[in-house]
Amino acid sequence: MSRKEKLDETLKKELAEIINREVPVENFLITVSYADCAPDLSQIKVGISVLPENKTGTGLKKLNPKTKLIAKNLKEKNNLRRVPKVIWISDTSPKNLFEIEEELNK
Description:
By secondary structure, the chain is of the alpha+beta class. The chain has helices at residues 3-22, 56-63, 67-78, 93-105, and strands at residues 29-37, 43-51, 85-90. A hairpin with a 5-residue loop joins strand 1 and strand 2 (43-51).
């Protein structure tokens, strides 16, 4: 595992913990699918999955106002030099996997 892959995996876990702690959600679940950090730590693309899927928009609306707080917590917890710009991306790969599995079962 490369250094970047280790960093991405660590940031993914940290982001999941911070989101669970800082973002209040009711009737749905936000999970972090992946984290892809730029080499200079200027930004981090974070893939999120929301269950049930019809609450994806609501999940993003809950995350957006907390983005600066989440980035600040991420910086402090990992001793990063700068606060990365967090970019939220709706990850639909779990849905795609479910659809593929259904097709294979047919």
